[in-house]
Design goal:
The complex is a heterodimer. Chain A is mainly alpha-helical. Chain A is built from 25 helices and five strands. The longest helix of chain A is centred in the middle third of the chain and has 35 residues. Chain B is mostly helical. A two-stranded antiparallel ribbon of chain B has the order 1-2. The chains are: A mainly alpha, B mainly alpha.
Amino acid sequence: MTDVPITDLRPLLAVLVSFVAAFFIVASHRSPNVREGWTVAAAVAKFAIVASMLPAVLDGAVFEWSLGAFLPGGIEFVLRADALGMLFAFLASGLWIVTSFYSIGYMRGNDETNQTRYFAAFAVSLSATMGIAFAGNLVTIFVFYELLSIATYPLVAHDETDEARAAGRKYLAYTMFGGGVLVLAGTALVYLIAGNVSFTAGGIEELANADPGLAMLAFFLLAIGFGVKAGIMPLHQWLPEAMVAPTPVSGLLHAVAVVKSGAFGVSRVVLDVFGPELVFELSLPFGFSAGLVLSTIGAVTLTAASIIAMRKDHLKQRLAYSTVSQLSYIILGLGLFGWYGLVGALLHIPAHAFMKLTLFFCAGNLHVSTHTDYISEMAGIGKRMPLTMGAFTVASLGMAGIPLLAGFVSKYYMLIGGIRMGAQFTPVAYYLVGALLLSGVLNIAYFWPVIYTAFFESEDAHDAKPLVDFRMGGESRSTLPATDGGRPEDEDEGGDADDEADIDEVVESAEGDSAVDTDSDPTDDGDLPGDSDIPDAEMDDLPTDEEGVVRPDFDTSDRDFSEPAERVDTGDYAVDSRPSDADVPFGVGRGDDSSDGDRADHSDDATHGAHDDDSHDDDSHDDHDTEHDDHADLADHDDHGHAGGPPAGGWEHIAGLDALRGRESTWFTLGPILTAMSLAVLLGVIPYEMGFLELIELIVDTRLPEEVMRP
Amino acid sequence: MSDVLLPVAIAVPLVSATLPIGLGLKYDDAGWPVAAVATTVLAGLAAAIGVEVARNGPLSHALGTYEPPIGIELVADELSVAVLALVAVVSLATLAFARVAGPRGNSFYSGYLLLVGGLTGLVLTGDLFNMFVFLEIVGISTYALIAADRSGASAYASLKYLVVGTVGASLYLLGVGYAFLATGTLNMLDMQVQIVEQASYADPLIRASYALIVAGLGLKIAVFPIHAWQPDAYQRAPDAVTTIVAALVSTASAYALIRVSYTVFTVDFLAANDAITTVMLIVAGASILAGSALAAMQSDLKRMFAYSSVAQFGMIVAAIALANETALLGGIVHLIGHGLLKFGLFLGVGLLALGYGGRELDDLASAARSAPYTAGAIAVLGLGLVGIPPSVGFLGKWYIGVGAVESSMGAGDPAGIGIAVVIFVSTLFTLSYVARVIERFYFAGVGLSDGHGEEAHGDEHDADDHGGSGSDHGVAADGGRESATGDDDGPLTPVEGAPRSRLVPDRVPSVPLAVLIVAALATIALGFGGYALFEWFDPFLTEVFA
């Protein structure tokens, strides 16, 4: 193992390659294919540069590039590729390749505007992410941390709607508060009490000798400052709101780069600024230590976020809270003092990234292909998008910690680490283990309904979602328009599923019979509907013709036209064939809680049909045609102001060879989904061979004191 | 012999100020060329003085060969050179803008050169009363320049500034008078010695003198709550005037405060007078908070950045009052950096007003689509103001913040901790108005194709507009549509006769735009020069804190 860092330009190149590419992306704004080519080229180049350093780093080398003294006191602007930095850099740069292809499919499939700005901002964000990964001291990581916030802001506010702007403002406020205020204050404090802000494996020595009160203050300033981006509660609010961004942004940035940079920052603070030993020893009252407080915050966040996730109907919101919850696994693991806990925490960084990226990509693909965002509309969608929902299933199982998937390995290590810490040091760790186990169950609780409704429920009879908002045993709903003039259920009525069937029967049996049945005994004739069976219909007063069909009286001779006409409820008219057009609670076309913003995407515009025809440009049609073929039939969906859900007649069933050929969507989106899913599976099956576990073991081995080393 | 550079540097702009009026008898448009030549010469002189100071340390010159302490002394040390460089560069660069935008006429350029001369003298003088003279020269020329466009509003703003500014200068003079009474000398370095010998740091006369000087200069710097003249003056003045005034006038007054506090009264005086420094810290903190809050409420861009100056100078005054070496370094770095940033910001705002007629934020929705380079430069400068690294704004904030924490750790007094918290949180405050501007320029959603984003005045949407404000997804077939097609100027309509450029889509004059972009890049380059700046100011700081 070499202790002396090797001066090498590659860390700087890894940062700069996409920054430079951003200028080329902007320059080629008139040729979308060239522009996308720059993105892919930059992603591949970046990954190649990072990967080229990986074998040497696995052997213990460290690559460094320094700009020289940046601030007095010997603070340099230095990029250092060590094992911990390589972990994050390797992950982010690799996943950028996958996301680039997905972005292409998503942005074109959704016909987004400002694509140049999007791709350029993405490139700069990845540049800042590499800077965070390779930063060699607190000031450098702060510089890139702020740059990441600035670079990702255009991505969050991309849609330029009110909701997007509000989300962008909140995002900037939270991340600038975390970074610009807390991290800066913490860095200044560390500089003042230790005189040194360089990342040193095992912690900066002077900190151990400094005043413990100030050291504790610095620790929490830094941990919470980085934790804001990692989504610890109660500073997590920006994450769900940032879901208004396009899905590749949610995927890469909010599941991989931005939130992981927060978690990475916390790991740098714990491992390289304070050191696990100091973190464990800085003590607070009631037997808590700084590390334990960190883990407790993580445990509380992961439980609360999981519970909130169960209540969300919007899929991306559910995934957002799931991200908040899973990120706290990492925070929890970092506070555990012991080899296993730290390895588990660090391993969760790539594990969660692969799984969450798959999930977000699936959600985005659902949006692009079927414009379905709400779980309550997803009944039977597995027929329409088998590959997508299949990948979703695999990734969800991984999230819950099912073996053979990535989530299991990291969780396993963390559980062992927690138990060992509980046995050796403090029983509080047992509660943390309990929280981890509970969260596995909660993960199932909020992912399984999605899978179940996609594959095992049908569009016309499924349980109302989200499940926890309705009674036990579920309530039947249908996302298809009822074909028999079905009656929307009242909010107040509990309504048995049985009742609904009865009323339908009752109404059907009314046809063909004389509906006028004056003074009939309700129990007179089982076939004839009695007055009490038919709600709201005063059969006595309705005029009928010879055949017994109720015809309203259209004699208008003495009608006062200043009043609207009387409404006649005959019981067998379909008032409108699309229940979404009426105010139907929890019906199709009506959102719940915070999802109105996303509805805005699909608000009805009468002139929209005309727009589409005028705006087709033949020249640029070609590259879009291939992607558009598969969902040309759904392209009109945008225009009808109908938010999502199945078309009349249910989902189109894509099965067999068609499914394998990817007819449900395009390969630009399906490829990345399947790639990310495979990576999640591979990480669960061969974590060593994938390089991550070996890297992590190297990281932890060099930072722990003897008594808690790997046994 | 090289110390002759100092009086020449002052004389050149002052004497050249007479030339436009003189030549105006024969030529109509003599003003701009004279000003250009004079400021170029001044820039050269400033560079020469800088080289001289870098090589041999501080320069001094006895004016008229009368030896100090009776005679007036001109001194150039590291601090003066830095501010002088700022004065020279900004006064030269603003001329590029004034040529296309600013008031025309020979008398304007005479006033301009008078201002430059006054600033140079203020920066280079080593005598307290001489400083008052130059303070007044700066003031009077500024009053005239602000009213230069002969409109009623600017005359009113100028009058307001005149009254307040004269009060400020008078308070300063009163303070100098008290100090003269106590010590019998007006030379700065001599007074530093005499205060200790003839009076003491606890002498009421000395304290009163300092307090009066601080109050007077505070009026000129425009700290809260005596800032009220500034927003009107900056907003109503012609755009080119605002550019130079915002960058240099308050900066020079703050320089004067630093000079008086540390060279004349010294850091020991500050350390011995907790009451005075605490009051200064409180006023500074209030400035930061109130200035940012007021800035966030503005819709006129120039007014917004005027209030921003109140906040930023609050930080500088806080740095002065902390009496800490790192904090003072931060104050000085921020002084220079802020001058450059405000120069760029007002230049950018002025260019947008010139090219598109838009002064209010509402009128500049999605400006980035029409004028990407101008909006981009304003965004970069704005983020520098917030303190996003790597920018010179970050450097100043880092040093002041570290200094504040350092002094609060050492003394443990709540004022230091309070100001440290305010400094760190000021990032958020500055962000509150800068983010508004950036959001308006880039994400207002105007002018998007296919019905994306907002309608042209999308800020007010009807309450019965269901489901948000109509962001529909069109079904265009290409990889996104950019609006730069031919004659399409984007969401903003340029004014009649706005210049067209082959290189950029912005309809603003090219040379000032180039200057703006250079200024934005310079602030980033300076941001990387933290160590170099520290090394430059180190001799001055060591001497002051010895």
